[in-house]
Amino acid sequence: MIDMKRRNIFSFAFIVILLTSLPYLVGYLRQDEQWRYTGLLIAAEDGHSYLAKMLLGAAGDWLFRTPYTAYPQRGFLAFFPYILLGKLTSPPGQYSQLVALFHLFRIAGVIFCIWATDRFVSLYFSECRYRLFAVVLATLGGGLGFLYVFGLSSFWQGGLPLEFYSPETFGFLSFLAIPHLLWARGFLFWGLTDYLHAHREESFWGGWKAGVIWNLTGLMQPFTIVVGWAVLAIHLFAEFLYSLLQKNNPLHSSFSFWAKRASGAVLASSPFVIYTFVSFRLDPFLKQWEKQNIILSPPIGDYLLAYGILLPLSLVGTWKWLRQSDVSKRLLIFWALFFPVLAYVPYNLQRRLPEGVFVALSILAVAGFSILSGFPRSLAKIWLGLSMIPSLILVGGGIITLLNPSPPLYFSADEQDLFKTMRDMVPRSSVVLADWDLSNLLPAHVPVRVIIGHGPESLRAIELKQQVEKFYRGDLSEKERLQFLKQENVDYLIVRQEISPNGWRKMPDLKLLYQNSSLALFQVTRP
To answer: 332 — phi, psi (to 5°)?
Structure first.
């Protein structure tokens, strides 16, 4: 039976790997002499930043210093897996190596996350079919977002369905394109499983083991540890209420046991959280980054649409399990019930706090499904099957997009030639001025810094983007242009041919270094 369960889970993981890798294969098949494929699929701006972080590691860095700003940085322990993977690459063909390692990291993350999710699900289902069903829903499931594609976009009041932009709300986006979030979710559920499943006589030390696992979560996404802490707090609240309803003294009941276990988990996993908190309080760059890194939750109606498929059966499952005295099931039920609190905590990253809730809802939905029979069961199976449609739309939409090579998922042969020239000519960490699109792409290919190119990581991004646009439009006088270059400590300037780079040759303090049919590279020379 164990071998059968493992075979089912790893077979499913293999299917997910094939499904999520198909668009990338199409991208490579469609590249030609004019267009080179980036190796990315969705959120190219973030994808380029991950490759840029890998290139930082290849250039010798161990701490994260974003190349998307010229602002001074002390360095911060973040995105470490990308930095570490980058150290396995070297010229020539370094960009291809970065992309290959990125996808190996993603593929390994697919297997690990599905394994960890299955391990958590096994706490609730002994039957192989229900266990696998819950894992499939948690991995590939979505909500009613597919209605947006079929002409009902008015339901979302001008925005997009969460299925298409929020990996925290569901998860398939991480399987498709965001490896470190896959690993973070896997470690989150691995730790939660050990927290619930450790030997009953181990109170504090049982939680300590879970906390040690969560330190690995911190290497991937430190904020996910806070999510774990929030789940523990919700669980303790549930146990406290349960003790009161049983007319027990909470200090002499199971609440006391779980309070000790949660304390062990929090204490063991606190180093990353403390380090991150102190760093963001003391480091001027990180303080500014935190202010402009805003990820807020959408209106509650968007969440109701997102979870609209699972909610009916989740309520049935909740009603079934509320009558059972099972600590694991209480945690799951209260986690789902506290979702609105998590989603709307007054904090810049509030949309990230519901991380993992979809897995809880998937388990509850399968619990509800398991008590149905006859026609209602057949109908419920079709209804839950609808939740797979958004994931198929994401894969299919990605394939359709990649069939027509164009930025930002492809870059031109001229850009490739420019990058090759810059790797040979431009010193590492030089500050390069380019338009937003090229600034986002450049640090993934050349170990330089840019002043714009990534919303959260480019300090004063909105203000500087407007100034850069004025710079290239010619809205600034020659004196103002030179002053801007000096003010932002720009060492090199890239100009597109459509804005007449020949006119820039006449500017003092600019020396033409390289030119092709599309782009020109200038060095800023100063006395």
So the answer is: -65, -45
Q: For residue 314, which amino acid is it? A: S
Predicted structure pTM score: 0.93
Rounded CA-CA distance 447/365 in Å is 48
Note whether 255 and 247 are within 8 A (CB): no
Take residue 337 and report the two structure tokens written for it.
């019930």
Residue 509 one-letter amino acid: D
Report pLDDT digits (tens) over 200-245.
667 888 889 899 999 999 899 999 999 999 999 999 999 888 888 8
For residue range 143-202, list pLDDT tens digits in order: 999 999 988 999 998 789 999 999 999 999 999 999 999 999 999 999 999 999 866 667
Q: What angle do CA 123, 124, 129 make, to 5 degrees?
A: 110
Determine contact, residues 243/257, Cβ cutoff 8 Å. no
Asked whether 431 and 464 are in contact (CB, 8 A), the reply is no
Tokens encoding 131 = 């266990």
Decide if 134 contacts 121 (C-beta within 8 A).
Answer: yes
The label of the residue with tokens 């569901």 reads: 170
Coil, strand, or helix at residue 200?
Answer: coil
Burial class (CB within 10 angstroms; exposed 0-12, middle 13-18, buried 19+) of 127? exposed
Q: Rounded CA gap, 91 and 82, in Å?
A: 17
Angle in degrees, 0-180, between the axes of helices 327-337 and 179-197, rounded to the nearest 10: 140
3-class secondary structure, 495: strand
Residues 6+ apart with CB under 8 A from 21: 103, 107
Rg of the chain over CA atoms, in angstroms? 25
Residue 509 CA to residue 175 CA, distance in Å, equals 48
Q: Which amino acid belongs to residue 44?
A: A
What is the Cα 332 distance to its own chain's centre?
A: 23
> Would you state the structure tokens that stand for residue 410, as one six-digit string?
């492809």
- What are the pLDDT digits (tens) for 284-327? 999 998 888 889 999 999 999 999 999 999 999 999 998 888 89
Of 303, 344, 47, residue with least CA distance to 173: 47
Q: How many CB atoms lie within 10 A of CB 406?
A: 10
